[in-house]
Amino acid sequence: MRPTSAQGKKEDLKRFKSFLQRADKNKVLKQLPQLHEEAFAANDCLQCAACCKNYSPRFKTPDVKRISRHLGLRESAFIDTYLDVDQEGDFVVKSSPCPFLVSGNACSIYDVRPSDCARFPYTDEDVIVKRPHLTLTNATFCPITFHVLDRLSAISK
Prior knowledge:
Low-confidence stretches: none
Number of strands: 4
Largest sheet: 2 strands, antiparallel
Radius of gyration: 17 Å
Order of helices and strands: HHHHHHEEEEHHHH
Mean pLDDT: 93
Shape: elongated
Helix content: 55-70%
Number of domains: 2
Structural class: mainly alpha
């Protein structure tokens, strides 16, 4: 489903951007559950893990509390060991790939992972139309986001 050439990717992203600018939010939201399921059925995150290898989720206070407790660390020790603060003031991992990514592209803290990770790639939420810049960025590396946008933009023609 992903285009093979750089020019093809660029053209698809342009098409997706145009679609997101004019999309009827309510129509999109009605289609998301089915397209989200379809995309996950066609793509195995454990084969990809590009999100975990190249990007960091935001770690909100509840995430920090939950994960540090799970790891048996004080919150300050967890933060000092694993996290930095980004330009927006959010906690993010210090390094790529994510320090919790283990062999087989699995997550060593999966059951207590940050809410950003649990929600990613937001293809079943209004984030897909409310935050078009984020959606387009995700489409550059996430086959699931690409799939959903490809199908949405094709349906809307």
